[in-house]
Amino acid sequence: MNHYPPRTIFILKNVISFEQTDYPAAQQWISLLYPHLKERNPLSLKYKPFGIEVPLDLKVVPLMLKEFNARWYLIAHDLETSKVRNYALDRIQSIEEYYFDLYQTKITFNPTTHFSDLVGVTVTDEGPKTIRFQTSPYLANYIDTKKIHHTQRKLDKAENLYELKAHINPELIARFLSLGEDLWISAPKELVERVRGKVAAMKEKYG
């Protein structure tokens, strides 16, 4: 008779974990927006951005929903400005159907091209800019394998000098600032000044 050692039984649980954030606004609005997104029905939004006391009354055509950095956004065509804007779901106060004849309204929106020059969701009126920055050797190992933006390329390996082309929006600035003292921007001047101002404000707060 053959004697086999007892088998060890493993019960595998939670071997893959995804980042999850409690975001009630997503549960509140996504199911309501979905049918309007499919048909591109014009909507009237009451929307309250941060720092504004009185909600805005907006007339938009919903185009898509997009998640970025654990926050959901409605991407929509603003009927007043004829521009594609983003609206954080947690800032929406109400949604109503808005009866508007779209027959002569030209809406050109291609998600692939719209987001190709962005970190995040915010499109600027100035368009994408060529940005140059340097990093410490330590950080270079990190951003070589996880690029800040898909256009990123290394100009000088010895100096860890990089270039990318993207909109200078709040999301990009936040991304640069998150990398701390291991990254410094050299161009364009407007971005250098904006980051310098934020660093100076932080220094003042920390004394």
Distinctive features:
207 residues; alpha+beta; 5-stranded antiparallel β-sheet; 4-stranded antiparallel β-sheet; 5 helices; 9 strands; extended
Description:
This protein is of the alpha+beta class. It has helices spanning 24-39, 111-114, 137-145, 170-178, 189-206, and strands at residues 43-47, 56-68, 71-78, 83-88, 92-97, 129-135, 153-156, 161-166, 183-187. A 5-stranded antiparallel beta sheet has the order 4-3-2-1-5. Strands 7-8-6-9 form a 4-stranded antiparallel beta sheet. The longest helix has 18 residues, at 189-206. The mean pLDDT is 91. The protein is built from 5 helices and 9 strands, in the order H-E-E-E-E-E-H-E-H-E-E-H-E-H. The chain starts with 23 loop residues before the first helix and ends with a helix.
How would you briefly describe this protein structure?
By secondary structure, the protein is an alpha+beta fold. 27% of the residues lie in helices and 29% in strands. It has helices at residues 24-39, 111-114, 137-145, 170-178, 189-206, and strands spanning 43-47, 56-68, 71-78, 83-88, 92-97, 129-135, 153-156, 161-166, 183-187.
